[in-house]
Design goal:
The chain is α/β, with parallel strands linked by helices. The chain is built from 16 helices and 16 strands. The strands form five sheets. The chain has an eight-stranded parallel β-barrel, surrounded by five helices. β9 (336-337) and β10 form a beta hairpin. α4 (80-94) runs parallel beside α6 (119-134), α8 (163-178) runs parallel beside α10 (213-238) and α10 crosses α13. The longest helix is centred in the middle third of the chain and has 26 residues, at 213-238. It is globular, with a radius of gyration of 21 Å. The two termini are 28 Å apart.
Length: 483
Amino acid sequence: METIKGFKENFLWGGATAANQIEGAFDLDGKGLSAADFVEYIPKEKRSKDNHMEVTSKVIQDILDGKHSGRFPKREGIDFYHTYKEDIALFAELGFKAFRMSIHWSRIFPNGYDEAPNEAGLAFYDNVFKELKKYNIEPVVTLSHYETPYGLIEKYNGWVGREVIDHFVRYAETVFNRYKGQVKYWMTFNEINIINLSPYTGGGVLSDLEDNPKQASYQALHHQLVASSLATKKLKEIDPEAKMGCMLARMLHYPNTCSPQDVRKAQFENQKNLLYTDVHARGEYPNFFKRFCAENNIEIKMEDGDLETLKAYPVDYISMSYYMTLLASDSPDGEITEGNLMTSLKNPYLETSDWGWQIDPIGIRTLLNDMWDRYQKPLFIVENGLGAYDKVEDGQIHDTYRIDYLSKHIEQMREAVKDGVDLMGYLAWGPIDLVSMSTSEMSKRYGFIYVDKDDDGNGTGERIRKDSFAWYKNVIATNGEEL
């Protein structure tokens, strides 16, 4: 029996971004408004979950009426719309094999429900794909990355409305036809589980308009899952060589103690987190979900054929973000720390980032083994990285902490591959500094490339290679052997 020694030769090394966090140009060339364009930057001391993630209908109306002043950094991004050639050249210098990006839905259909697509928006992505091809970089494209068109929010309350399914599928069909042969790897929804943690972020759902917000978020989820399957069907018809994946914010829970109650609590939290990939990969809702819905006053309305559609068109691969692990406890008393849209009891065995996210490299090996055993489908790490404060000293950024974080995670990823996990690639989150999804900050930096811009929007926008740039370039050149 042959043993696996490391990453395969065609391993997809690269980085990952989202249109709403890098492009800017929010009102140029026919683009319509999206959910992200209403997310305000709020300084840390004034920040709460309600005011920096969940936007209300009144706030949106006040913004539209000019009664609410503030900064909306995702409207500005880092101006990738105008700097994509220079930025992609830097990715090529790093040796990228793949670049994950998203298409801004409202750049193609400004309201989401328009009769005809916006040619200027389609042409922009033509140019981006052309530039990537010039350097032999594979685009990995997310169809919807927290970018629900505002028109669909206004008309249907986002994904609560079943009508949005047809609008999404038409959008998907449009870009599949346009970019056939140019994009080999697609994903439908970024971190699809976020719709039940932040419905506005994940699905353009204004919870203040709903009598039962939890019910509404799971109804919206069902609509996204059906839309994902129908988009997969379209892709297979239009471009059979292309692959469709799903994307999960993987939130691995450990039991806080070895008490059976804590072990069961951790098992349940993991079941809830894997609900989304269960449907995407297996084509059906898991049995535990029926009891969960009954006990939480959730009644999902389904139409004839929905369950058959989910079963008939599963994804080809499973992708995920991984930033930290969490603790599950039946009696959660103790120090609380921050996470990716979730808080957790602090794990005494782990260090934390500048933002309180628990750093657990071994966790990536654990979850990859678990998910491979569960699904037997190719896996893809499409987000992983360290958000940290960077300091410019004499024009240089010495980010040894980022190198340490990434090298330990890649080392454990390599161990998972040796364990027998079929891993397609690794796309580090934010290879170039971008606007933070959760806090709309620039100071929470992930990149190998520094962008001279601060939380208030000041700066030249200059790109500077950090020490991690040369390090990651060598990681790719040695196919992960030299860390």
